[in-house]
Design a protein that fits this description.
11 helices, 451 residues, globular
Length: 451
């Protein structure tokens, strides 16, 4: 084990994930267009993973003059980058009160980092002309019952303590802003908003390729052979590189790296059919803010540019030893029932898309960023705890800073020693226990508001 908790390289390939019936709304029509790797390629940096982290790292490293190869097991955006809900939020860690409690003085630096990451996303969208329906409308942490108002008070106090731009919306302000009636009080976080993550990740891909990054799709990595240079082995070729970047987030432990640092959980989302004009008028929501609830395991809701509602989360599933899990019809029914409770006027609106996928958590809920390996040339950023658009996008800058020996704001993460995850079966028991405990708290609140 090294200082990060990684157990080093393995020889098995990363396990795949089959999308839910209907698939991710954001990835409709997206297929692999780049050829698989065949033969041997030399590069300064080999990046494993074609999502926000991998592509942002490619852009940053090409700007520094390094030759870069990106290897993606399926197609660009196949993982969490193409499966998330599309909320760009100034949140890092589990939530604001937990962040303030666990990290105290460091919490301000961490919030400054994630706000910088939001600015980075906005600048990337503008600089590369990415048409991803970005709306800088902010996000509201919302209560569904007065029982949750205490959590909002704690979040507001924490936000003030770390310098986060926010505003408490009392019930009258919620109604004045025309937010949906189910949400009784909220904390508006002004920075960020909502976007189409599929279009955003494809825009990053175009920017990386325009900078002469070589992208190979349908190219799973079999193993990474340490050395100087290292060798990244695929079924039909290999990349020899002075440095390797693991941009595989929840898939990283399946490659044999960061097994003791992050754990893979599964989350699920849905999308409705486009709302008719009368349905859109019935729910209000003129400001189109992103909404996520003050549950222990939050629900998220947002509108799309074609007037759908995308929602879900509310629970997570963990497979023993981080194994991939099949889709679960009961979980989809559970999150859709919550949606019907929050939006009773839309009970007749059909759900057209259901999908899920793995995300990664560290024990402290902060992203794991650093360098590892016998030759100290394997770089990584993973474990965004469901808040990956901002931090996954800024990960490329953090990795470039590390690789080039530069100081930078990312020191708030890479200078942080991670607590190791407990081994199995204790990890499974802890995960199941926490999910059950959080779920029990949330169900009590839900029963109070259910007709």
């Amino acid at each position: 084990m090294d200082a990060t908790g990684s157990s080093g390289p393995a020889t098995s390939s990363t396990s795949g994930f089959a999308p839910a019936a209907g698939g991710s709304l954001w990835m409709e029509g997206v297929v692999a267009t780049a050829s698989p790797l065949t033969g041997d390629v030399d590069a300064d940096v080999a990046i494993v993973g074609g999502g926000f982290t991998g592509l942002s790292a490619a852009i940053a490293l090409r700007a520094a003059g390094h030759s870069v190869v990106v290897l993606e097991q399926a197609h660009v955006g196949f993982g969490a980058s193409g499966r998330n809900a599309g909320h760009l939020t100034p949140v890092i860690g589990k939530d604001l009160p937990t962040l303030a409690m666990l990290f105290r003085k460091r919490a301000r630096d961490l919030i400054a980092l994630v706000e910088l990451a939001i600015e980075h996303v906005e600048q990337a969208i503008a600089a590369h002309g990415i048409d991803c329906a970005y709306e800088p409308v902010g996000n509201v942490l919302a209560a569904i019952h007065p029982k949750q108002h205490g959590m909002l008070d704690k979040a507001a106090k924490a936000a003030a303590g770390v310098g986060l731009a926010s505003e408490m919306l009392e019930p009258e302000a919620m109604r004045a802003r025309d937010l949906p009636a189910a949400f009784t009080r909220g904390l508006l976080m002004r920075r960020g908003g909502i976007l189409h993550p599929g279009r955003y990740v494809q825009g990053l891909r175009r920017a990386a390729e325009s900078a002469q990054t070589l992208v190979f799709e349908r190219t799973p990595v079999v193993r990474i052979e340490e050395g100087s240079p290292a060798a990244v082995i695929t079924p039909a070729g290999r990349v020899r590189a002075r440095a390797v970047v693991l941009a595989t987030n929840a898939y990283t432990p399946a490659l044999g790296w960061l097994r003791g640092t992050i754990a893979r959980f599964h989350v699920y989302l849905f999308a409705t059919a486009p709302l008719a004009e009368a349905d859109r008028a019935a729910i209000g929501w003129r400001g189109r803010e992103g909404i996520y609830t003050a549950h222990e395991m939050l629900e998220s809701y947002r509108l799309t540019d074609d007037q759908r509602i995308v929602g879900g989360a509310k629970t997570v599933r963990y497979g023993f030893d981080g194994r991939a899990l099949p889709d679960d019809p009961a979980t989809f029914a559970f999150i859709e029932a919550a949606f019907r409770d929050r939006f009773p006027a839309l009970r007749h609106v059909p759900v057209t898309h259901r999908w899920g996928g793995p995300i990664a958590f560290a024990l402290d809920f902060l992203p794991a960023v650093g360098v590892t390996g016998t030759y100290r040339n394997v770089y990584y950023s993973a474990g965004y705890a469901g808040h990956g658009i901002a931090m996954g996008s800024y990960a490329g800058t953090m990795i470039a800073d590390l690789l080039l020996g530069r100081d930078g704001p990312g020191r708030a993460l890479w200078g942080h020693r991670k607590m190791p995850m407990p081994p199995e079966p204790l990890r499974w028991l802890v995960a199941k226990g926490l999910v059950a405990a959080f779920g029990a708290v949330d169900r009590r609140v839900d029963r109070l508001v259910r007709p």
